[in-house]
Design a protein that fits this description.
Elements lengths: L4 H58 L9 H8 L3 H4 L2 E5 L4 E3 L9 E7 L2 E8 L8 H51 L14 H49 L7 H28 L7 E5 H18 L3 E6 L4 E5 H18 L5 E9 L2 E9 L32 H11 L3 E6 L3 E10 L3
Parallel strand pairs: 6-8
Antiparallel strand pairs: 1-2, 1-4, 3-4, 5-7, 8-9, 9-11, 10-11
Helix pairs in contact: 1-4, 4-5, 5-6, 6-9, 7-8, 8-9
Length: about 450
């Protein structure tokens, strides 16, 4: 049987409380013993002073020590205590010759002079108290020690109850997170944990919820991606299959026109596969970049010139505002690829007779490249999603215009790899503005 963490925490708290209670009991016992013996020593000191005074009075009355010599009963009367305690007292004359008591007093004994008429006539000595000898004193000590152990046992029992409550209270949120993690591992990405505190467990629950949201979003994107890929691959393959079947059945002759049509579909399929491959490489960080200090303005000019005829064929006018220098640290080929993809996007989806404008400007440590086109525009809710894979606006960005919806996604990967950002906005020309911002080179 496996021991749960609740039981482990319970035993840990209980063990700590038990050790503390035992230490407290031992400390109380030691403190009581030393303190009680000290108290009895003070009482003995008072008895010693009183005995010195009584012996002086008796000595004055009898004129010598014969009244008490070797007489323990008489000494006990003067001390007014038990015979066992009386043995701890020793009486000697002025020459320190023994009168009554122990002839060899123990080390550390207390001593008082017996003074009669301002003359020392003897000495009284008390041996130190090393253990309890009186039955009442021993009984009192045992009762106190027994009470200390009873209190320690009660403290341990109380600690056990508190430990059980605390273990359950502390681990209940953790148990909820553990159960939710088990469901999440089973594929239930809609699992969430209620956040009830702001401490470490509360932050753990919040982090778990964010993890679950990320996994749920990634799973949704993965399924959508697989569906979009299969659809995009199915379309050119279906066209190829239909045309080949038509040629085989003799419905369509095998001539240059049919070969051009087949080649077009193969080219579209190859471009789709190549874009998917580049995006996959970008995701794992394996897309090659050879960065160096490069001026963006000549690259944008080169991209514009390469697309001038294509834009003119679509009936689009292109404008450019490329003045000054705009150095960045980047890969020339990848930046040129990004600029051409953005121009291709404008060429595909801008209405005939419209305009395309490209502008480059430098602001302090950033370089901004704007690609503006005229109508049609993009709905506001679709702007943040334009850089998702296979996403296209249904009205203006349809499959009829060609493309698989991967160009802008690849542009975002290239911008991220250069430490920049790319975003979509409404263009003052009435269409779409794509702004690429890159860090300027030193």
């Amino acid at each position: 049987m496996k021991t749960g963490i609740t039981l482990k925490l319970f035993f840990a708290i209980l063990a700590a409380a038990a050790v503390a209670a035992a230490a407290m009991a031992f400390a109380t016992r030691s403190s009581f013993q030393s303190g009680f013996l000290g108290y009895l020593s003070q009482v003995d000191a008072q008895r010693l002073d009183a005995l010195s005074t009584s012996l002086a009075d008796e000595y004055r009355r009898h004129g010598g020590w014969d009244f008490v010599r070797n007489d323990y009963s008489r000494l006990r009367e003067l001390v007014a205590t038990s015979a066992q305690l009386t043995q701890r007292f020793t009486v000697a004359d002025a020459k320190r010759e023994l009168v009554v008591g122990n002839p060899e007093p123990a080390s550390g004994s207390a001593e008082r002079p017996v003074v009669v008429d301002d003359r020392v006539v003897g000495w009284v000595t008390r041996a130190p108290l090393r253990r309890l000898s009186n039955a009442a004193e021993v009984s009192f000590q045992q009762e106190q020690l027994r009470a200390a152990w009873v209190i320690a046992a009660f403290a341990v029992a109380l600690a056990a109850a508190i430990a059980l409550v605390m273990a359950r209270a502390f681990l209940l949120p953790l148990k909820r997170v553990a159960d939710a993690t088990h469901r999440l591992a089973g594929g239930n990405y809609a699992t969430r944990v209620e956040v009830r505190s702001t401490d470490e467990l509360g932050r753990l629950a919040g982090d778990f919820n964010r993890l679950a949201e990320t996994l749920e979003r990634n799973e949704t994107l993965r399924r959508r991606f697989m569906a979009d890929v299969s659809h995009e691959l199915r379309t050119p393959l279906a066209v190829l299959s239909a045309e080949l079947e038509a040629i085989e059945d003799g419905v369509r002759p095998l001539n240059k026109n049919s070969l051009v049509s087949l080649r077009t579909e193969v080219g579209a399929l190859s471009k789709l596969v190549n874009d998917l491959n580049q995006l996959a490489l970008a995701d794992v960080g394996a897309l090659a970049y050879r960065k160096e200090n490069v001026d963006v303005v000549p690259l944008v000019e080169q991209a514009v010139e390469s697309y001038r005829e294509r834009l003119a064929a679509r009936g689009l006018e292109i404008e450019s505002a490329l003045t000054g220098d705009a150095p960045v640290y980047g890969d020339t080929d990848r930046l040129l690829q990004m600029f051409r993809n953005l121009l291709e996007n404008s060429a595909r989806y801008t209405d005939t007779g419209g305009r395309v404008r490209v502008a480059v400007r430098r602001h302090q440590d950033r370089v901004a490249i704007d690609f503006d086109d005229s109508a049609p525009g993009v709905p506001p809710d679709a702007l943040p999603r334009l850089f998702e894979r296979f996403f296209r606006v249904d009205a203006a960005r349809t499959r009829a215009n060609g493309g698989a919806g991967l160009g802008l996604a690849l542009c975002r990967s290239i911008a991220d790899a250069h430490g920049g950002e790319i975003r979509a906005e409404h263009s003052p020309l009435g269409g779409l503005r794509v702004r690429v911002t890159l860090p300027a080179a030193a």
